[in-house]
Amino acid sequence: MNLNATLLAQMVVFLILAWFVMKFVWPPMVHALDERAKKIADGLAAAEKGKTELEAAHKRVDQELAQARNDGQQRIADAEKRALSVAEEIKANAQAEAARIIAQAKAEADNQVVKARETLRAEVATLAVKGAEQILKREVDQAAHAQLLNQLKAEL
Fold this sequence. Notes:
The protein has helices at about 5-135, 145-155.
């Protein structure tokens, strides 16, 4: 066999093989590789999008937590203010009630003092009359001397 003919035959077979591979094998492989590259790119894009969404979700969660803390602190502050106002109201009511009770007690004491004075005046008048009876050794007519006793009560 001739070396040139063998070389030429191998070249023809190689060209036929190259043409066959380029016509029938290469396009499906390129298509499969392109699809795979597209899937990988889509996967990376989805991963990046998921990462971005996760970061956004973390930010929203942090904002919601901060808002919840602020709301809780505001509610606590409002409750403390209400508690203070209720305590002040109760204190004011208690002071008003105490003042009313003291005023009532003073009025009652004044009434008792007036009654005691009247009773004491009556007793002093009776004792004065009895003393005058014993001094005079006779009975004094109370009806006749009622005006005298009233004057004596007024003076005492």
